[in-house]
Amino acid sequence: MRNSTIRAVNRLTARWAEQAVTGDTGTVLTAVGVWPLLALLADGAAGPAREELSEALGISADSAAAAARELLGDLSGVRGLQAATGLWALRDLPLEQRWLDALPDGARGLLTGDPDTDGKALDAWAAEQTGGLIERMPVDFPSPPAHIQLVLASALTQRLRWIRPFRSGTVEPYEGPWAGRALIALHRSTTLLDRVRVAATPAGPVTLLEVVGDGGVDVHLVLGAPDAPPGRVLSAGAAVASRALTATGASLLPEGNPGPGLRIRSVLSPDPEPYLHITTPAFEVAAEHDLLDHPGLFGLASASDTDAGHFPGISPAPLAVGSARQSAVARFDAEGFEAAAVTAVAAYPGAAAPSRYRYRTRQAEVCFDRPFGFLAVHRTSRLVLAAGWVTDPLPYVDERPEYEEWMKRAEEEAADAEWAAEQARWAEEAR
Fold first, then answer.
1. I want to staple 396 with a disulfide (CB 3.0 to 4.6 A). Which of 102, 105, 182, 203 is the partner?
2. Within 10 Å of residue 121's Cβ, how many Cβ atoms?
3. For residue 314, which of 43, 110, 37 has the smallest C-alpha distance?
């Protein structure tokens, strides 16, 4: 992957995370699904819209389409990652052949102008490309008599398995926002202390834990100070994970609490190897993003003005961005991680035995027991594929009450059967 494109996408990820992640609720966002669409729009834009899109992209609009095509092609080569693009337009909308030729390979379809018919076709594509993780295309249809003229969409789906699965259990934090809640806890230990690192960032100290996937993608869990703004913590984490900021591994950190959620100490052990003990909750988050809520961030301020046309390089008909949305989901459990995002831009008409403890070794313990961030990162390029924030981890459901209720009913039925048998025996003796 081209380094300039990676830096540009990661920059958009960090800026979006800082603006959109408030900590009020869990969320997930995928800038790598947005960036290529903005690049393809920039290639066909003119005037202020072209300038604003170029600024948001971080590269010249002149090279944007080629960069988008190259990026989407490279993403398709990442193990476990499925990337797709699609274009749908009204039959009578004239499109510039030069712009069509610059598009990545992908679905091509026609819009009928009927919202129900078009919605079903677009939804079917989204569901097919994400394996059912996302069932609806995130498009706003205008009120009649206006029709969507064109839809440009991307779909990204990532599935990976951990090199070493976690052990599942339960945990009940004793302080913080999750205090007193029984959560599904994931536990794992490793001798690789530097899987956890601490960085000094503009958001304060940040702890990152790297969880290695079986393909070319890893997931980094990100924890800041309790009072640090979540958006800034996640943005800082993206900078560390992409190596724009440096971090220090646990093997070189001082003992004590050198980072949020991290404890390092020397302990007596029967094994000379150091150990990192990990505890984190399982989680599932989903989010809907309206990109027009942040028009400046995505370079869509001028492009979304429907009083004029902004894309003469796409069509001689006046077009403006009327809808730009993303639907995303992410899941993290004992076996692996999966995430999916569908992004769509629609154009509207313009107008522990002590006696054997022979060694003193270093042990690190990291625990994610309050809201934290996560980043899915391509290992070799350091491209951030997904970013999000966890506020409501998955609860632990104790199935024992159901079992105890079943046992109680079984005992009562057995007692009833025994009593019925006893009565039958008495009746037989009486005869």
1. 182
2. 16
3. 43
DSSP for residue 61:
G
According to DSSP, the β-strands at 275-281 and 359-367 are parallel
Of all residues in the chain, what percent are helix, strand and coil, respectively (each to 5)? 30, 35, 35
Do both 203 and 108 map to the same domain? no
Q: How far apart are CA 346 and CA 92, in angstroms?
A: 16
Residues 6+ apart with CB under 8 A from 247: 197, 198, 199, 208, 240
Q: CA torsion angle for 13, 15, 19, 20 (degrees, to 10)?
A: -10
Residue 171 vs residues 281, 282, 297, 340: alpha-carbon distances, Å: 8, 11, 39, 28
Q: What are phi and psi of 102, to 5 degrees?
A: -85, -10
Residue with tokens 């009327």: 322
Residue 397 lies in a domain: no
Within this chain, do residues 301 and 234 fall inside the same structural domain, yes or no? no
Distance of CA 382 to the CA centre of its chain: 16
Q: Are residues 268 and 316 in the same domain?
A: no
Which residues are bridge partners to 1 per DSSP? none
Q: How far is CA 42 from the centre of its chain?
A: 26
The CATH number given to whatever domain includes residue 41 is: 3.30.497.10
- Asked if the structure places residue 317 within a domain, the reply is yes
The side-by-side arrangement of strands in the sheet containing 183-190 is 167-171, 183-190, 275-281, 359-367, 262-269, 256-259
Please give the single-letter amino acid code of residue 405. Answer: E
CATH of the domain at 195: 2.30.39.10
d(CA 245, CA 238): 9
The answer to whether residue 396 sits within a structural domain is no
Per-residue pLDDT of the chain (431 residues; tens, 9 = 90+): 789 999 999 999 999 999 999 999 999 999 999 999 999 999 999 999 999 999 999 999 999 999 999 999 999 889 999 999 999 999 999 999 999 999 988 889 999 999 999 999 999 999 999 999 999 999 999 888 788 999 999 999 999 999 999 999 998 998 899 999 999 999 999 999 999 999 999 999 999 999 999 989 999 999 999 999 999 999 999 999 999 999 999 999 999 999 999 999 998 777 788 999 999 999 999 999 999 999 999 999 999 998 889 999 999 999 999 999 999 999 999 999 999 999 999 999 886 444 445 677 889 999 999 999 999 999 999 999 999 999 999 998 765 555 456 556 666 665 666 666 566 666 565 55
